[in-house]
Design a protein that fits this description.
alpha+beta; Multidrug efflux transporter AcrB transmembrane fold; Alpha-Beta Plaits; four-stranded antiparallel sheet; 13 helices; 6 strands; elongated
Length: 349
Amino acid sequence: MSKLSGLGGRLYRGETSIEIIGRRRRWYAVSAVFVLLSIGALSIQGLHLGIEFKGGSSFTVTKAGASIEDARSAVTATGVPGEAIVQTIGSDKIRVQTGALNTVQNNAVQDALAAKFSVAVESIDTQIVGPSWGKEITRKALYGLFGFLICVMLYLAMAFEPKMAIAAIAAVVHDVFITVGIYALVGFDVTPATVIGFLTILGYSLYDTVVVFDKIRENTRTITSSSKSTYSQATNLAVNQTLIRSMNTSLIALLPVGSILFVGAGLLGAGTLKDLSLALFIGLAVGTYSSIFIAPPVLAQLREKEPAMQALAKRVNGRGVPAGVETPAPAHSDERRGPRNQPKRKHRK
């Protein structure tokens, strides 16, 4: 711990520096690989929408020792269309999800499950969701997502500057896209809890990004009045100064979420927790990455295109005339040729 704190102090004072902004192409390449994987997962497998979004019926049977194979065979025997999704919840519950069913088909599935597991029909928890209600939930979720992005962009543009808002939104879109792609690759059902997890990671990603941007603004407030460092160099220093803090905050946030995902959903079998915990776990990790390796490089790249920052870079790199230094007058032609021969003085006798 003392070594980590010592490293944080050296990074903050600039004694040690990790090149992040200058290697932005490397970080862009890493993100591009994950984006391509997400595109592949979404195009091949797609998202497995829960019945809350696409409509359908859900049957939960409480029976110790119930197996997925027995539940699937019972549903298949009824002849209902579509493939049923069967999941275990804990050690004594099993849930069967089907497409939209009419009353006769719904009763047939209930009777088949009750007979297969020797339970009363009344003990089966049945939930029926219509397609119209699922479309309404989807529409409201999209409204909430776009409204969130618009409000965040307006706030960042007013509190910081428009280019910081653009860089922050680019990082947020990066986080959501990769999280959704990994979610599709894993094959978990998208439920309202998943949407809540997505909105939560957006807030966390922006929180970490805003902290880094605040330090960048502090380091670059009067940068054009001096010739000590370019905008990219000052941005890299700000990222180094907040690097240890971001790592510590992210680790503390990932530990409880990881416990929910691996212990609660994995070992204890709490299936209702895995939708939320997986979205949070992936989103927190990706959000930490983007707040360090995506948002600051994008911001620096946008700002370096400004004429003032280009002139500053020329002064720092010695390709131009530093500010406040007068240009020397051109030398006289005789001086360029060397000292002029003076006539010899005649000595009087």
